[in-house]
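User: Thanks for the earlier help. One more: Efflux RND transporter permease subunit. Can you show the sequence and predicted structure together?

Assistant: Of course, both are below.
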Amino acid sequence: MIIIVIMVLGMGILSYTKLPMEFLPEADNPQVTVSVIGPGYDASSMDRSVTGPLEKSLSAIKGKTNVFSTSGDGFSQVNLNFDSSTNMKEAKLEVEKAVNSVNLPDNVSPPYVVQFNTSMIPISFVTLTFADGVSDAQKETLEQQVLEDFRAIDGVGEVQMSGKSQPKVSIVPDAAKLAAKGVPLQALYGVLQGRSASASVGESTLDGQIVNLNVSASLQDVESVKKLPVAAGVTLGDVANVTFDDDKESTFRIDGKDALEFVISKGANSNAVNVGKGVDEIIEKYNEENKSVNLKVMISTSEQVVHSVNSMMREVLLGALFATIVILIFMRNVRATLVTIVSIPLSLAMTLYLLDLSGITLNILTLGGVAVAVGRLVDDSIVVIENIFRRLQKEKFSPELVIDATKEVARAITASTLTTIAVFLPMSLLRGGLQSFLLPFALTMTYSLLSSLLVALTVIPLMSSGVLRNSQIKEHQPSKRFVKLLEWNLRFKWLPIIAAFLLLIGSIATYISMPKGAIDSSSAENLTVSLEYKPDTPVAEVMENGSKLEAFLMNREEVEWVTLANGNSADAAKYGSVSSPTLVSYMLKMKEGADAEKVMEAVKSERANYPGAELNTGTGNFMAGGSSTQVFVDITGNDLDSIGKTAEEVIAKIKPVKDVLKVESNQEEKKTVYTLQVNPTEAKAGDIAMQLQGMLNPVPIGAITVDGQSVQVLLEPTLKPKSETDLSSLTVMTDSGPKPVSSVAKWVKTEQSTTFFHKDGKSYVRVSASVEPSQLSAVGAEIKKQLADVKPPEGVKLNIGGASADQSADMMSLFSMMLVSIGIVYLIMVITFKTLRAPLAIMTSILFVPIGAVLGLIVTGVTPDFTAIFGVVMLIGIVVTNAIVLIDRVKHNEIDRNMSIREALLEAAGTRMRPILMTAIATVGAMLPLVFGSSESGSIVSQSLAIVVIGGLVVSTLLTLVIVPCIYELLHFRKSANQRKTIATTVREVAAE
């Protein structure tokens, strides 16, 4: 046994070093996103020529529940939602096949298809800034080197880069000079043709030696381009303005300095911490060896993983320490305490080994499972050692006594452990994402509890026989006061039972009226700020004001660094990230101990300085995928006017609701659009569209090499109409020669939405209400109530969704899981006790869980969230263990010692009070670090879970010792009454004699 124990500990330590560490367990998001970027295209064109064809091709995809699409200026995005049973890898391949068959217009990017998985949560966000004086060619070489080094790290999945420079040479034709020199504009299109070349023209023998002959020419600077001839005696510089522009694909800055951002994600099944270390090593190497670059980690989830592993381990050790103190206080025997504590390291070692075998990673959920299980790891051992200890107070030590004492409680602890495990079996009933998250947690709990049971039935008796062999143990007497109190309760059993049920009804009513919050995944270490202008605002004006706000944020003493981002990049689009060109986003890192609220208030007070813009701020992190506290109302239909009117009515109903912070609709923004309606008998619309595209947009005409870097040459638009008259006077080529556009077509001015939204192919308006996170359920219910009065016209439908609906669905999943758990627990106890009534008495201990849980939330003032409900589910398994230990002793007294029901209850309650209180207080002690510790963001193991478990366990333990005996006697009232009559008669007869 000693060798086995050492081997188990060794395997546990080895597994701990081997287990991959990550932030969250791997779970597929049941959604596939298709993104397309089309610079220069307005929302209407993107909707018609990109989104429409994509939606058509995706309509036959199997397993999808609904399709949402958004078309805006320069971008299009289609989101396909799938049901939780869909294999998302196959779904993604099917979507890729469908979109690749679509013919998209010129100048738009290929469709980027992405399916998110939690393993894609970035490991590190790194910025790269260059020293002054570094040339563009050097920058390109260095950024490529850094990118390749990051990609070469063992375990890296994807490296996304944004803020990349895209230098270009602009040729702006001068119409007056072209006319004066008699040069047609078309001559400029071929100015670069054949000028740069590199070709082999053959072999020849020179001076008796075979040599190769090549022809080569390359344009290396703007001056050379200016000197190119466009007609006899006329150079390009004579008729056009040629300039070198250092443009960027998208803007990214840190502390006011242009920067590149690298977002590094790990591959599936690789260790997040090792990837994070690899990133840190590369950054260190570059910063030391190359003075022209400065690399900096803005945020690292691998650090958060290490932090969460360390903090959970700290909480596990603190929990173990509290459990040790509790046992020592109750036992007053150091040897017995040491024997009990052995179960913690042994059970943890076995758990880690089993997690390794199951291919489960160490993440905040599995570690949370360990932290929650620590209190339960000693429960079985406490019951075994307490029973051996109690027997040794009256009997002489012998190996048989140890075996017999263990056997006496073996059935009770096996049943209680199995019931706790049974609570986690119905995890398979949960919805897709929820199941992927909770299953690792459930398996961790299951492994640790089974390990602790095995240790309690093998190692603990063995160690007890060695350690307690010669120890002097004082006899422990059951509490006489408690036995008297219980006797009174049994005599007037209806009073305590009615009081308990009134408390239960009151606590459920209190819970229903309490506002429920969402899981708070924000971190006050980071703030997000967004500045958004109307879509028709020129980008130059947006960036000018964006820089002004950036300077204001950088001057705040509470802020460590500020990043600014604007525009779309091909790399970001690959990850489904597309945004409006008139949106500037900021991320702020707060200094340690700085007041984030103060900065948020300061930002809000700046709103007056940015008229026409929407300035918002909030706490957030790099993984916050949109707001988790928004309630959506989708209004679908075929007629846009009736949808719009219904949306206005919905907004009017939602605005006055308390705790609604902001209401907005996706149809509020309008933009002026001029559409050229061509007379098909006069000209070909397709030809005119191509001509105007060439005249009004930059046209690539070739590339030159500058400092070893290939730079695109663009012929800028010749026409820049300033008014409606300018538009009408444009000249186009028709089959019958050049004509003014007004003679073959007319311009029609309309006000159109800047963004087009479709749901399952139909137009829809989404009204979104941002809600105070702690009041999510209350506001969601009030919005539903208000919208019941809205009567939409025929063909228009309202659909309420968002965080409130998701929360309700998750809560319902957990409630149904709770009912199944209760059924399984009852079944296990019927098999254990081979009777229907005793398990019913045990099950009543579950009824008292809500009393303590709600009391705990009221006392601490914590808002119940999804994790609080999960805490109640866990309590079902934890609280019945006490009742099982009690009723098992009652049955033992009745059958083996021929006691009456009341005698059996009084003796069992007196005897089992100590181990029941010990296990309950040890579990509470082990959970205390979770109440006062810093719970990880987005973790299931939160403060509210710990409060619910502690409150529920304390109250149900006290009520189990008092109410469960009353209910047990009530279930056997005839038999018990007859026994009491018989005893009373016997007593009278003895007295008479």
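User: Great, one quick takeaway?

Assistant: Residues 478-513+835-992 form a domain with the Multidrug efflux transporter AcrB transmembrane fold fold (CATH 1.20.1640.10).
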